Amino acid sequence: MSNNKEEIRIGVYICHCGHNIAGAVDVVGVAEYAAKLPNVVISKDYKYMCSDPGQELIAADIKEYNLNRIVVTSCSPLLHEKTFREATTKAGLNQYFMQMVNIRENVSWVNENFDDATEKSKDLVRAAVQRVAFQRALEKQKVPVNPNVLIVGGGIAGISAALTMANAGKKVYLVEKESTIGGHMAIFDKTFPTLDCAACILTPKMSSVKNHPNITLWTYSEVSNVEGFVGNYKVQVTRKPRYVIEDLCVGCMLCVEKCIFKEGKFPDEFNQGLSKRKPVYVPFPQATPLVAVIDDKTCIHFKTGKCTQTCKTACDRNAIDFDQKPEIKEIEVGTVLLTTGFQAFDAKKVPYYGYGKYPNVFTSLEVERMVNASGPTEGHVLTREGKAPKSVGIIHCVGSRDEKTHKWCSRVCCMYSLKLAHLIKEHTGADVYNFYIDMRTPGKGYEEFYDKLLHEDVHFIRGRVSEVTDWITSPEEEGKLIIRAEDTMIGMVRRIPVDMVVLAVGMEPRDDAQEIRKMFNISCSTEGFFLERHPKLAPVNTFTDGVFIAGACQGPRDIPDSVAQAGAAAAEALVLIDSGHVELEPNTAYIVDEICSGCKSCLNICPYKAITFDLEKNKSSINVALCKGCGTCVAACPSSAIKQNLFEDVEIFSEIKGIFVE
Amino acid sequence: MAVYWGAACGGCCVSVLDVHETLLTVIQHADLVFWPIALDTKYADVEAMEDKSIDLTLFNGAVRNSENEHMAHVLRAKSKILVAYGSCAHMGGIPGLANFSTKEELLSRVYDESPSTVNPDKVRPQHEYKVPEGTLEIPNFYEDVCMLDQIVDVDYYLPGCPPQTERLVEVFLAIVSGAQLPPKGSVIGVSERAQCEECTRIKSDNRSVDRFYRPWEIEDDGVSCFIDQGVICMGSATVGGCGVRCVKGNAPCRGCYGPVPGVTDMGAKIMSTIATALNAEDENDIIKAIDSIEDAAGTFYRFSLPASKIRRKIQ
Known about the structure:
The complex is a heterodimer of chains A (662) and B (315).
Chain A: E1 10-15, H1 19-22, H2 27-35, E2 40-46, H3 52-64, E3 69-74, H4 77-90, E4 98-102, H5 104-108, H6 114-132, E5 141-144, E6 149-152, H7 156-167, E7 172-175, E8 190-191, E9 196-197, H8 198-211, E10 215-218, E11 221-229, E12 232-239, H9 254-258, E13 266-267, E14 276-277, E15 280-281, E16 293-294, H10 300-304, H11 310-314, E17 327-333, E18 335-338, E19 342-344, E20 361-363, H12 364-371, E21 391-398, H13 413-428, E22 431-436, H14 446-454, E23 459-462, E24 465-469, E25 481-487, E26 492-498, E27 500-505, E28 507-509, H15 513-519, E29 547-549, H16 559-579, E30 581-584, E31 589-591, E32 611-614, E33 619-622, H17 632-636, E34 642-644, H18 649-660
Parallel strand pairs in A: 1-2, 1-3, 3-4, 6-7, 6-18, 7-10, 18-29, 20-27, 21-22, 21-27, 22-23
Antiparallel strand pairs in A: 5-30, 8-9, 11-12, 12-17, 13-14, 15-16, 19-28, 24-25, 25-26, 31-34, 32-33
Helix pairs in contact in A: 2-6, 3-4, 6-18, 7-8, 7-16, 12-13, 13-14
Chain B: E1 2-5, H1 11-17, H2 22-29, H3 43-48, E2 54-60, E3 63-65, H4 66-78, E4 79-85, H5 87-91, H6 103-113, E5 128-131, E6 134-137, E7 141-146, E8 156-158, H7 165-176, H8 245-248, H9 266-276, H10 283-291, H11 296-300
Parallel strand pairs in B: 1-2, 2-4, 4-8
Antiparallel strand pairs in B: 3-7, 5-6
């Protein structure tokens, strides 16, 4: 250790964090205790260490007492390590001579006994005091940031972010899994609370994406591999074959018209299966790019090889290519925005509401398509028998706020149910019943919209629906679906017979969210949505630098919030790009050549592929830029030839000893 | 010069005898004043010597009873240079594995349970026993097996089970020739790096082991790294110096030379390393592989349990 000879002079600072810490820990006692520990020159407690005066206190003491090590005993390093490192740097001391002790999340918030909490705080301070003496001065490494950005998911969040970044002059790669961008918003008819047409506001943005010189749009494509680190990601995108050459197709629909199938035969995904499509199709008229796609699971050519290929003959631009193969694109980007969205809750998982059993139980997305003028029923709300319903029940919170399915509130269902109630009423004049638990309408103009509905003769029944059934108890219920629900307003169980039931399905993480999470090395919260770095202060950042999240992949949210988040994520990415470089934390591993015996134990265990073997030297070597400091190789090295900055054995063992030995 | 054995098997003393005719060179430079295996010097004679009157003492064996401890203190006082000679004095060695059991478990195994024991009266060794002629004493059997430096201050460590005789001669000649000696506390006669550096077996870049084998369970190809073949070899966690003797004899390294300098827990290190070789998809694969290791703790801590972080079984 280089610092063996220098005199260690430690300053210890105990933060009250208002009452957060001081209410549960004897902060003055801890400060007095710390003052008596070896090498501690000064020990103080202060109301808010993170405040300006708190930080200045550290800086002033470093100068006055000639301190060369700092221990700040406060909250989680996640929150304020940066703050106190900067305060240390300001006073001319290397920032890695500062060690934080978390006595808020780890002590005051989780201990009920004042004396225990105080003792534990002392133990942790003692450990840090012993550790910090061994810490060494380290420097951050600077690496340039590639200005290109990858955006995964072409829903409204991805579209908004792509346009923002592209307008800022950055090269954007927008990758979408489906054959068109637009996401869920493209499915909707009107948007709440303004009732403006979703397509009218979305499709111009979709075309802007298509035509923007700075945007490379890859639909029907998926990210298949990610390597590298913040500012320098190498990404592999697999473009699935759509069997139609994108550059040649103009979306004239001749191929669709001339397909050997005279009529659509397969459930149309875009219309939620309410209509049929052919194997060659364009999902909807404003699909972007407006390029047909051939579904190889239903196309006769792919199934039997015996199709006369009428589509191919029909295409006068020779755009159809049955031999298309998956195409791998390799790109280099500096930042990544994940806007992969959500999936609707599968209503079949709550069988007591009868979806899939009773034909006239629909999901909200199906009704969205029905009320849409270009939808399968051309804007008519119809039962499966093709009749306009006289009464419709909308059940809220299907797959939301429910111990059995998802505990969370999906945030959008109350509002879209009100919207659908309004539209159904407008289209059919039916009696519409809303069954809700609580009406949640926080948002600009949302409560006003609810108020408007209250005056539109829509019925509201406050209570949870227990079941939807066709078991009738009176002649007037004949041929109807019965919604049984408690009406908490009048304190009784009611049976409401209706012609049509609409299930307001909630939002849940996509099935492939885990796969994406692993690929980009980010975390998910317990329910499976992508985890933000901080729920309030870093909602679009992740714990992986350079990877940002926006929209419903992070949690249920509506269009305005998704767009706002997309803007925030774009801004965060732009900050990184425009700063030109990133500083890499020096908590990386390094190999001491004099000790490495070349046993190769470390070679295949690095999750970041940062370790290679130098045949000439017969030793391993670590690429510092790729190393994330996970410590796996450090633990694995049988000779302790691999060491990790900030986590050297002597630091860790001193800390452990400090905890146990007074 | 003195040679003493604590809790030892005698192999270290034999390794000293293995100097063969070089013994003549040795006794040319030094009188052998105490060596229980070869000379008839009594403890009382040693106790009567003046402090620091022995130039060099090779202490082999661990310290596991009051006799070992007493002689460790006596020899420390009488010796200018005290060398912990061999794995047991260095790290606790094979006797140190007794720390995986309590004293009671050991005694009950030996005096009650072992199949060859007939002891209907449940006789156990006593520290003192009164007979008509007076009181008989045998050493106190300790709960713990210690390595030498847990008892007394040690100048140098010469590792190995047993140490290479060549190393002993080198060290001896260095001392008598008045050469510059390494700093006190050094492990001598070793390299700076693990065995793998000298080992000529071919190591894979991408280890993938489904289960582990004891050496007799596979046919060694003689060419590939033992770990690649699924045989536990301690070489990567063991400091070089012996000349990779075991592996050259087609037996995996057992780790008697101790860890590479700077390693805090040799057993933990080799365990982590062995884990890197595993080809495991899930927890079951891992459990299966671990189950294929016979006596994992005894294998990984074969020579170093008292010197390790775990040190012993909690009572």
